């Protein structure tokens, strides 16, 4: 017979936090119409049109990453690490 734990494990706490983040990001994506924001950003965001080098990132992706950086008080390097590591950050930014 399986023993029932009386207190949550570290994994339970971690998964609970993930659901909160995912719900928050889902609500933000539902509430905000990103099309007008993209139009405003596209006016100011100049993409390079050289044939060499890597293609530039989508302007809305960069804007959403900047929102994450501001909301969570992260440095540029920290937000890059979080977007690469945290699935909810990647999904919100539009990388998945």
List the helices and strands and how they pair.
Layout: H1 10-31, H2 34-44, H3 59-72, H4 76-85, H5 87-93
Helix pairs in contact: 3-4, 4-5
The general outline is elongated
- Proportion of residues in extended strands: under 5%
Largest pleated sheet: none
> What is the first-to-last residue Cα distance?
41 Å
- The residue-averaged pLDDT reads 82
Series of secondary-structure elements, N-terminal to C-terminal: HHHHH
Stretches with pLDDT under 50, minimum 5 residues:
none
Total E-strand runs: 0
Instruction: Specify Rg, calculated over alpha carbons.
Output: 18 Å
Helicity level, as a percent range? 55-70%
Number of helices: 5
Structural class of the secondary elements? mainly alpha
In short:
This is ISPg1, transposase. This protein is mainly alpha-helical.
Describe this structure in words.
There is one protein chain. With 96 residues, the protein is an all-alpha fold. The protein has a domain at 33-47 and 56-96. 67% of the residues lie in helices and 0% in strands. It has 5 helices and no strands. It has helices spanning 10-31, 34-44, 59-72, 76-85, 87-93. Helix 4 (76-85) packs across helix 5 (87-93). The termini are far apart. The mean pLDDT is 82.
What attributes does this structure have?
mainly alpha; 67% helix; elongated; 0% strand; 96 residues
């Amino acid at each position: 017979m399986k023993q029932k734990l009386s207190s949550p494990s570290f994994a339970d706490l971690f998964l609970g936090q993930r659901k909160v983040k995912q719900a928050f990001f889902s609500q933000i994506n539902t509430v905000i119409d990103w099309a007008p924001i993209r139009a405003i950003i596209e006016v100011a965001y100049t993409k390079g049109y050289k044939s060499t080098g890597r293609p530039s990132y989508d302007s809305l992706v960069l804007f959403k990453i900047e929102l994450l950086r501001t909301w969570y008080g992260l440095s540029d390097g920290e937000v890059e690490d979080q977007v690469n590591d945290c699935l909810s950050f990647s999904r919100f930014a539009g990388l998945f």
